[in-house]
Design a protein that fits this description.
The chain is an all-alpha fold and 54 residues long. It has helices at residues 3-17, 25-37, 41-52.
């Protein structure tokens, strides 16, 4: 995932879960960066698919 894709997904996820205590944009972004660092295109694709349903 590119940094732009990570930012877009972060914002999209955050708008859905912003009322959850302890879950902020920084947490979501770090999780997505961790997933991106795996370098597994199949996992990245599944995350993008999940984001479409949010």
């Amino acid at each position: 995932m590119t940094s732009d894709e990570i930012e877009q997904l972060t914002n999209k996820v955050y708008t859905t879960v912003k009322s959850v205590p302890g879950v902020d944009k920084d947490f979501i972004k770090k999780c997505l960066q961790g997933i991106a660092s795996l370098g597994d295109p199949a996992i990245e694709q599944k995350i993008k698919q999940l984001a479409r349903f949010i």
